[in-house]
Design goal:
The complex is a heterodimer of chains A (about 120) and B (about 300). Chain A has 4 helices and 2 strands. Chain A is mainly alpha-helical. In chain A, helix 2 packs across helix 4 and helix 3 packs across helix 4. The radius of gyration of chain A is 17 Å and the shape is globular. Chain A starts with a helix and ends with a helix. Chain B folds into 3 domains: about 70 residues; about 100 residues, Cupredoxins -  blue copper proteins (Immunoglobulin-like), CATH 2.60.40.420; about 90 residues, Sandwich (Immunoglobulin-like), CATH 2.60.40.420. The chains are: A mainly alpha (about 120), B alpha+beta (about 300). Chain A: Keywords: Heme, Iron, Metal-binding. Chain A: It comes from Aromatoleum buckelii. Chain A: InterPro entries: Cyt_c-like_dom (IPR009056), Cyt_c-like_dom_sf (IPR036909).
Chain lengths: ~120, ~300
């Protein structure tokens, strides 16, 4: 019994330690985002854990992108910046091979919800 | 739209429906006989009646029953077989040539000449008989669209003919069903079955060369994308209406009208086509297209032009 209680306590402590208060989240449906990442063909260029067929190596792999500090090496990684990047990567004024795919705001929000979970 | 797009259990034509019917007769019939044998075995173990040891059962269940059942099944399958491939003359004739690892699709005219070429996508009019002439350019492949018909091999040096019809409008998926080396698993295709008038509109549009002239004035990005294409891609690809007349890879005249890229493996949009040009060996290892190292602006420009080829 005592061991079980200790384990439970340790688990609660672990969960508390995981909470990441520093990143504001924008909501969004992560599961739908995962499907959209496939449908829009993000998989052609990026390796994305949990997305079928995502073997591309044209752009950076997205494993751990939720913890990455800069997006595209320049933008501070926040859900808002990630959404803007997905919707219009050309709008930041520097050269990138990533095209604008006419992703809607709510689609981008769902994609970000999934990507920000990749720690 | 994408439910059951590649399932022999969801037939969209009489040929596939016939195969499914035979499958059910065999599976259900086999299960019934198996259950009966198990019941007799249990009876023999736990409460053997006298008749179970007699000659009657051996003659009846061992000889008469199999002879009658197998003869009936033989007659049934012989009668069912003609339904597995349509016999009516075809309204549309399409030559499908298997390549490592994609499908060349040539629509033929009344004289059997190539009317126009496309790739990795077949459009059919619903309710009409379609004849597919299956050929191979290199090794064995097998054409299999489970919702429409059974498999038929593409054999080097031989023309195989498959007649089929679609009974409802649907987007279906098929794939190569005979191991053909390397990325065989990534050799897929889409079949778009559509109402006859929509099919005719599609066919009329596919016959046209690519619309080039109008775009130069309106869209300078497209024009520079086209210049890049013409200086790098013409050895292997054709775009009718330009001087690109390569035959090694798929005809790209109406590339943007297709659902997929890389023989059914990626959705077709300007991001995936850019990813394909720059990194196709990661997406489909050993395919015959080289990777190109354009700078990022050029890559976007080229992808943009390809996506104007409606």
């Amino acid at each position: 019994m005592r061991v079980t209680a200790l384990l439970a306590l340790a688990w609660v402590a672990l969960l508390a330690g995981c909470s990441d208060e520093s990143r504001p989240v924008l909501g969004g449906d992560a599961e739908n985002g995962r499907l959209l990442l496939r449908q829009f063909g993000c998989i052609g260029c990026h390796r994305i854990p949990g997305v079928a067929g995502a073997t591309g190596n044209v752009g950076p792999p997205l494993d751990g992108v939720g913890r990455r500090v800069y997006l595209a090496g320049v933008l501070p990684n926040s859900p808002a910046n990630m959404m803007r990047w997905i919707r219009d990567p050309q709008s930041f004024g520097f050269e990138t091979a990533m095209p604008d795919l006419q992703v809607t705001e709510s689609q981008a929000r769902d994609m970000v919800a999934y990507l920000q979970e990749l720690k | 739209m994408l439910d059951n797009i590649q399932s022999a259990l969801a037939p969209r034509g009489p040929e596939a429906a016939g195969i499914l019917e035979i499958t059910w007769v065999l599976v259900v019939g086999g299960a019934l006989i198996f259950t009966l044998v198990l019941a007799l075995t249990a009876l023999a173990f736990f409460a053997p009646p006298r008749w179970l040891a007699g000659k009657g059962l051996i003659i009846g269940a061992g000889i008469v029953f199999p002879v009658i059942t197998l003869a009936a099944l033989l007659i049934y399958t012989l009668l069912a077989a003609p339904r597995l491939s349509a016999v009516e003359p075809a309204d549309v004739t399409i030559e499908v040539v298997g390549h490592q690892w994609w499908w060349r699709v040539n629509y033929l005219d009344a004289r059997g000449e190539v009317d126009f070429a496309t790739a990795n996508e077949i459009h059919l009019p619903v309710g009409r008989t379609v004849e597919l002439r299956l050929r191979s350019a290199d090794v064995l492949h097998s054409f299999w669209v489970p919702s429409l018909a059974g498999k038929l091999d593409l054999i080097p040096g031989k023309d195989n003919r498959l007649r089929l019809a679609a009974t409802e409008a649907a987007v279906l998926r098929g794939q190569c069903a005979e191991y053909c080396g390397g990325p065989h698993a990534q050799m897929a295709l889409f079949v778009v079955a559509e109402a006859p008038e929509r099919f005719e509109a599609w066919r009329a549009a596919q016959r046209q060369p690519a619309a080039i002239a109008a775009e130069d004035a309106a869209d300078s990005e497209a024009a520079s994308g086209r210049r890049l294409f013409l200086s790098h891609c013409t050895t292997c690809h054709t775009v009718r209406g330009t001087r690109a007349e390569g035959e090694l890879g798929p005809d790209l005249t109406h590339f943007a009208s297709r659902l997929s890229l890389g023989a059914g493996i990626l959705p077709n949009n300007r991001a995936t086509v850019a990813g394909w040009i720059a990194g196709n060996q990661h997406l489909k290892p050993d395919n015959l297209m080289p990777e190109f190292r354009f700078d990022s602006g050029e890559l976007r420009t080229l992808a943009h032009w390809l996506e104007t080829l409606e």
